[in-house]
Amino acid sequence: MLDTKIALKELEKLNNAPQTTERFQKYLWKSWALNEEFKTMGALSFEEKKKMGSVLSEAKTTLTDAYESKERKLSMEGINQKLNEDLIDISLDGKPLDQGSYSVLALVRREIEEVYKWMWFIIDYGHEIVTKYENFESVNIPLTHPATEMHDTIYLKDTDPSGLLLILRTHNSAHQVEDIMKYGVPLKLGSPGRVYRFENMDASHDTMFRYAEWLVIDKNVSIANFKDTMKKILSWILWKATEIRMRPSYFPFVEPGFEIDAQCTICGGKWCSLCKQSWWIELVGAGMVHPNVITNAGLDPKEWSGFARGIGVSRLAALRYGIKDIRYFTNGDLRFAKSFS
Ligand code: FA5
């Protein structure tokens, strides 16, 4: 007869889960001694059968329970061993991930957008490809103006569906008429974005630079309104206290027109490539919106007036961070790009 104690001892010796299952199935279950014992019961009397049956059933239960608890134990041990092997020591320094960073220009643009929002301006980025008409004629720049000639403007080979020449916008003033018609009046509109010019490059001139346009159309808008908002914007974005000067200038789409310069915060006028020893850096072109632009937008210039300004964001960022050459912003040098985030 099967000795349960011997079978239990054998089970105890096994120390891996697959082997235990195999042994249990082959030896203790399918062809195990118990089965043989059950087979012999046919020849026994009723009383003997009853006795034997109860002994064998108890042995079967004991062995099955022992097997199941052994299997559970082994599988827990297996899991624990795996966990120990895969243990990650979180006290060790990890490998640093290579993190991206914002470019200086993106940081300054975001701040300009904050100022727009703070002053309740709608923001519309416009589009970098515009028709020659939008860029020039819609804002009262006659096609005979030198700015429309090839040396200032980058032309595309394509035309728009109506056959108008396409160019890369040279300023966001190109959207003034379209935006007045799109949003209606009164209007306070901010338009930041890249602009493109066919330029001789130097420390303060690039062929692509960041620009931000401000346009206000309302009744009775005055130069005082313009000056007040200009002061607030520059003191917010420039950080450093620096002298600002406003001087008369000419743009065909304003009357009168002004330019605003800031004192060079980098060299204080001694010498640097950005201001070229002139002390002043031109930052803004501006003026009171020309009646012809207001008429082009379908409004009566006797009723509606406004001011507009275009800020050179690349130069503004250079002054703010003391960068001597705006071409650093776009030359792809990661050491420069990463040093501002
Ligand atoms: C204009 O583009 C006008 N549209 C501004 C304006 C808007 C006038 C609304 C009146 C009413 P300007 O060409 O001066 O103006 O350019 C505006 C500013 O962009 C300049 O003051 C300067 O800060 C900057 N800027 C001009 N050319 C470059 C360049 N090549 N690279 C970097 N910044 C430039």
In short:
With 341 residues, the protein is α+β, with helices and mostly antiparallel strands. It has helices spanning 4-13, 17-30, 33-39, 46-85, 104-118, 132-135, 176-183, 223-238, 291-296, 313-321, 334-337; strands at 122-123, 129-131, 155-159, 165-168, 187-196, 208-218, 244-249, 254-263, 280-289, 305-312. Helix content is 39%, strand content 20%.
Write the element-wise H/E pattern from the N-terminal end onward: HHHHHEEHEEHEEHEEEHEHH
**End-to-end Cα distance:** 82 Å
Strand ordering within the main sheet: 1-5-6-10-9-8-7
The radius of gyration computed from the alpha-carbon positions, rounded to a whole number of angstroms, is 42 Å
Q: What is the name of the CATH architecture of the largest domain? A: 2-Layer Sandwich
The ligands bound in this entry are:
adenosine-5'-[phenylalaninyl-phosphate]
Q: What is the number of helices?
A: 11
Category by helix and strand content: alpha+beta
Using DSSP, what is the number of strands?
Answer: 10
Helical proportion? 25-40%
CATH homology superfamily name of the largest domain: Bira Bifunctional Protein, Domain 2
Kindly report the average pLDDT value: 88
Low-confidence stretches: none
Q: What would you call the shape?
A: elongated
Largest β-sheet summary: 7 strands, mixed
Number of domains: 2
Oligomer: single chain
Name of the CATH first level of the largest domain = Alpha Beta
